[in-house]
Amino acid sequence: MTGAVRNVDPAEAARLVEADSVHVLDVRTPGEYERLGHIPGAILLPVDLVASGAATLPRDGRGVLVLCEHGVRSAHAARLLARAGLPQVLNMTGGMSRWSGARAHDPGNPFAPYGPSSWLVENAARLPREGRCLDLACGKGRHALLLAGAGLRVHAIDNDAERLAALSEIALRLGAPLTTEALDLQGEAVDLGSGVYDAILVFSFLHRPLFPRIAAALKPGGLLIYETFLKQQAERGQPKNPAYLLEPGELERLVAPLEVVAAREGDFDGRLVSGVAAVRRRAER
Where are the alpha helices (DSSP H) in the chain? Predict the structure, then answer.
């Protein structure tokens, strides 16, 4: 039943895992996941990032079995996911401290596809504690939900109305301060406003003519966190269209006249990407 959490002991959890009737969600830290061992195949998503999972975790008819080391963090995470509308959310009481089944010790990735980008987490301390945030080309809303859960008022824009409707429903269930807008971001008439946002996020999206409008939409002192694919990513799969791929070093040039305060390029979260964090100078008029 949507909205309810069912507690299961490790013995019942083991039967569910054996029957492949649940997705296993481990909300411990990456260190605990690797050092203490985890259920083979478990998704790693630490409890402080679990709001992203409300948008990204599979809704395919299988349940979600949530666990931690002793059952405290998992109870909190399970309640959030159930409120977000995920069906069949189960909490493993006693946690991995009582698990007697198989354990794996390979490292886990708490970021994409279920969690936020590591670039956002790396720059989280630069984000304002309050104010308005724009999540541009938000996709399913993994970043929008995380920041709304932290208290920012988030406006999420995407061209996929169906995804936005699902995101709006999740935000409503969670009471998150999040609004959505369906917009063709490659259209000529895109207007993001002037001096509107304290922070803007853009991930896995590139339309070069939009950069001046992104910069203009930031308030003086506002922060842009941007990350998308390098051209070498085409050798690994999608995207392949060069219009959606960056040359090395190009992103820092595209965000001008914003001041770049952090940058990275290379293989992160299993993708070849370029990322910047950039600030609109307060003296700018």
Answer: 10-18, 30-35, 50-56, 72-83, 118-122, 142-149, 161-174, 211-217, 250-254
Query: Taking a C-beta distance cutoff of 8 angstroms, is the pair 262, 119 a contact?
Result: no
CA distance 253 to 255: 6
Question: What is the C-alpha separation between 85 and 166, in angstroms, rounded?
Answer: 10
pLDDT given at position 283:
67
Which of 168, 130, 132, 169 minimizes the C-alpha distance to 151? 130
Give dist(CA 156, CA 148) in Å, integer.
10
Residues 6+ away with beta carbon under 8 Å from 119: 203, 225, 227, 264, 268, 273, 275
Considering the chain, tell me which residue range(s) the CATH 3.40.250.10 domain(s) occupy. 5-98
At the top level of CATH, the class of 5-98 is alpha beta
Task: Please say if the pLDDT value at position 285 is more than 50.
Answer: no
For 109-152, the pLDDT digits (tens) are: 999 799 999 999 999 999 999 999 999 999 999 999 999 999 99
Q: Are strands 178-182 and 197-203 parallel, antiparallel or unpaired?
A: unpaired
Look at strands 43-44 and 22-26 and give their pairing: parallel
Over residues 187-218, the pLDDT tens digits come to 888 999 999 999 999 999 999 999 999 999 99
CATH 3.40.50.150 location in the chain: 118-279
CATH topology assigned to domain 118-279: Rossmann fold (3.40.50)
